[in-house]
Amino acid sequence: MPEKRKIYIMGHRNPDTDSCVSAAAYARLKHLLGETGAVAVRGGKLSPQTEYIFERFAVPVPQYIPDMIPKVAYYMNRNVTPVRGNTSLWKAVSEMEARKTKVIPVVEEDGTYCSMLNYNAFAHNILNILNPETATLFSTNINLITETLNAQQVLGFKTEELFKCVIIVVSDSIETFRKTLSLHMPENAVIITADRRDVQEYSIESGVRAIVLSSGTVLDKDLREKAEKKGVSVLISPYRSAETAMLVMYSAPASEMADKTAHKPVKALDTIRYARPLLRESPNRTLPVVDDNNKLIGAISESDLLGEPNVNIILVDHNELSQALEGIENYTLLEIIDHHRLGNLNTRDPITFINRPVGATCTIIVSLYKLNRIPIPKNIASILLAGILADTLVLQSATVTEEDKDTALFLSNITNLDIEKLGAEIISAGNKLGNRTAEEIIRQDMKEYNEANTIFTISQIEVESTEEILARKDEFLQELEIERRSREAVFCAIMITDVIKLTSYMMIAGKNEFMQVLDLPPKEAGVFFLRGIVSRKKQLVPLLSEQIEKLQTAP
């Protein structure tokens, strides 16, 4: 049965609280609706505020995924059943025939990857055994020979012990047989004969490893007693001597006949770019996939790369490609649930697109629970309330709507959480700067925009006092300039919002031509005062977009 396709539910690459909570809550709704493949993921480090919320209400944080660059994990086949290394070649090949595959992984007893068995490998090894000039010996044991022949084991000694087997099929005179046996170590010899008592007796006296009686021949009772005393195993094969000899060669362990070098293992997080040339070089264009402990977890073939990846995507809290995880364009986008402006994201197929002018994506997620008549689990309701309060400055932002307020009251009622008290707690958790660097703070909630082919970024942090960050102005401006140059952006800015006074400051590093047309009240070099502005999406982005238009139309 093919592996069930996963659905990654994710926000923007630098996720804020609304983004992470929306992903987690929507993934839970999908599970409650029977979509067990839904997984909440995130692309960046959690902010202290978001960590506090998930930890307080004991909800697992979304799984961290640094990017969506195509990887082995998204194309591999996990439904791969290996054979154990001590399985006979005959049984392993039979498994390959039954599964209609040309290659099968071989593992040790604990699942550690050993090798890959393919037709080329075992055909080469069998030819070496058959070649009279090389006289290559092969490993086997009495139990494997018994199993491969479907033989009746009359006597068995050291049946699990591997030995280097030499097969001697006796059709010549007893004198010739004696000469032949003298060329080999008796304890490695497997004698195949029928009703030749003289051969049977001499073999027993010589202490061979085993006698295989072909065509159902029975050993005389007195010889059986001698064989038991000498520790010689005796098997009765239902096949003729030639067929028996051929099958004994197939009793070799699969690990010995497999290819240990041509199929280089790859790991689930290896990129397809890395795996593709290895696939081209491998027999049958197939590679094993192992974990960090070299345990087999699946396989990948060139044909797997021709199909769709086993992951689909749902975006929450954004709809712009520049804000998504790198590589997301390689996957099928199923849904977008957002409350921001429309971006520049294109899709191959029609999708479910919910975009509503509310203060938080969490508000939309709550409405989807209601639409599907699914009661919201208390812990999920708690983080949804926290997400709304975080994204609307405790219902004080310019983006807040009556629906946000009604939804917050609804969640407060079913969770028994006080809105004002919870809001104060999550704001306090979010504005603790501690020893965090300017780079960490800037990247914590950074969004990239593209206005008429003009790239810029705006980060935002909400604090109860702006003094600490403003005192580190030089450090922040230097880091913003590094970010601007690395992105070749017109400007990079951080919005520092005072949640008590409901106003903001903006630090900005920009190209000289942009800074010359920037018409905002300056506080000092690189720092501007934004009276009454607390919303990035509804107030600051439109304001700076106007400044960009001025730059583009300047003579």
Task: Outline the structure in words.
With 555 residues, this protein is of the alpha/beta class. The chain is 39% helix and 22% strand. The protein is built from 21 helices and 24 strands. A 6-stranded parallel beta sheet has the order 3-2-1-16-17-18. Helix 1 packs parallel to helix 13, helix 1 packs antiparallel against helix 14 (378-391) and helix 7 packs parallel to helix 8. It starts with 5 loop residues before the first strand and ends with a helix. The model has no long low-confidence stretch (mean pLDDT 90).
What key phrases describe this protein's structure?
555 residues; 39% helix; 22% strand; alpha/beta; six-stranded mixed sheet; 21 helices; 24 strands; elongated; single chain; six-stranded parallel sheet
SSE order and pairing:
Layout: E1 6-10, H1 17-32, E2 38-42, H2 48-56, E3 63-64, E4 83-84, H3 89-99, E5 103-107, E6 113-118, H4 119-130, E7 138-140, H5 142-149, E8 152-155, E9 163-169, H6 174-182, E10 189-193, H7 197-206, E11 210-213, H8 221-230, E12 233-236, H9 241-249, H10 254-257, E13 266-267, H11 272-281, E14 286-290, E15 296-301, H12 302-306, E16 311-316, E17 332-338, E18 352-355, H13 361-371, H14 378-391, H15 402-415, H16 419-430, H17 438-444, E19 446-451, E20 454-463, H18 467-471, H19 473-487, E21 491-498, E22 503-510, H20 512-517, E23 522-524, E24 527-530, H21 536-553
Parallel strand pairs: 1-2, 1-16, 2-3, 4-5, 9-10, 10-11, 11-12, 13-14, 16-17, 17-18, 20-21
Antiparallel strand pairs: 5-6, 7-9, 8-12, 14-15, 19-20, 21-22, 22-24, 23-24
